[in-house]
Amino acid sequence: MRSSLAPGVWFLRAFSRDSWFRGFTLLLTFLIYTCYHMSRKPISIVKSRLHQNCSEVINPINDTHSLNDTTWCSWGPFDKDDYKELLGAVDNAFLVAYAIGMFISGIFGERLPLRYYLSAGMLLSGLFTSLFGMGYFWNIHVLWYFVLVQICNGLVQTTGWPSVVACVGNWFGKGKRGFIMGIWNSHTSVGNILGSLIAGIWVNSHWGLSFIVPGSITAAMGIFTFFFLIEYPEDVDCTPPQHHEAPDENQDHPEDPGNSSYSHKESSVEAAASCSKEPCPEPAAISFLGALKIPGVIEFSLCLLFAKLVSYTFLYWLPLYIFNVAHFGAKEAGDLSTLFDVGGIIGGIMAGLISDYINGRATTCCVMLILAAPVMFLYNSVGQNGITSSIVMLIVCGALVNGPYALITTAVSADLGTHKSLKGNAKALSTVTAIIDGTGSIGAALGPLLAGLISPTGWNNVFYMLISADILACLLLCRLVYKEILAWKASLSRVRGSSLALTHP
User: Fold this and answer.
1) Global pTM?
2) I need a surface site. Which of 179, 223, 413, 415 has the fewest CB within 10 A?
3) Are 448 and 317 in contact (CB under 8 A)?
């Protein structure tokens, strides 16, 4: 007598071959960018160790420092009064290099095999992250070494984002892109959390390992990527996705005012299926100016500049803020700061789900940005009054700050990179992604720099700066929000007209 089919085998057979490859690609690119962000996070955790008040630290045996010296346990050159400016310079060495390199990276990403490009980028990123940590074991106390390593790391890290977004865009169509990419984009927060927890293990002892361990993991992931990344569905005889809807349906991009806000039908896949069986001609890569002319690219890019300014200021300075204001230890401050990233996971998924449902990317971002401003004010005012209020405010703040940032860098970039004006040329995806994220990275560089310059005048002023940037990000989306509202009105008018025609033949 035969038993029924094993539940595990039944589960495996429940999904098609295409679904398994898509799921594998989604998981692999998730892990890839998790490693990229994991390797960026340790500097924010180690900051409080590079400069600390040594009056409460137990003196080592036979130590010769002065009794009045309260910075003997700090790490030079960050042991002086200008340590905030120096730490800001180290942050900006990475972020400015990242912002400049991002505009170039997308162009290379479209012209080089993504698998080679990502693998090399991850190996080099792991190397430079580890070299920063080696400064501890080599007893290096000169600023130029840490700045130079950060510049190199910033440049090689630009290989990541355009490549993974282009790869995911090659595999997934438009239907539920916001929700899928909202879940997928949680790699940013997961990477930040892992980076914080790993760095926190050694921050109070051998802080160099806080960089070397994440760097080694990133390099190992680069080797895995070389062996297993699949760039296009056609490479394994899978059916490519449809990026656009049928001719009688309208695009649901926010920049097209006549769009139907609730249409989700896809066109026939016969042409796509034929391309999966027969080699199709390689489309030409789009120029930088050509990508800028795509409707909506400039508005979302400038919005992301201010949204990322806010997000990256939290990324690099939140542990130090908690350390100074709430008076937690370095490890505890780092652990508590991960709640901001937990909120970021929730916010990214919510933003993708809501934008898919209402068919309005710009409106979703605008509403979350509006709510983020008062929440940031409240967190600075009452967020440190108790552990419970701090936890709740961090999660809510993380959701509202990172939600728009996550939506723009994923679903919006993929939407615009496969815009109908491109006539099916998905080669623009990497360039559009690089333009949007590169512009955002300018804000990512400005935020920590301004925080380093403003924080000596008081943390309140830092939060006023963040709230102002948040409001500017919201204002930049006003035109696109207006067009989405017009699209919803047009859709409702068509629905009412159809209802009247049916009831009064």
Assistant:
1) 0.74
2) 223
3) yes
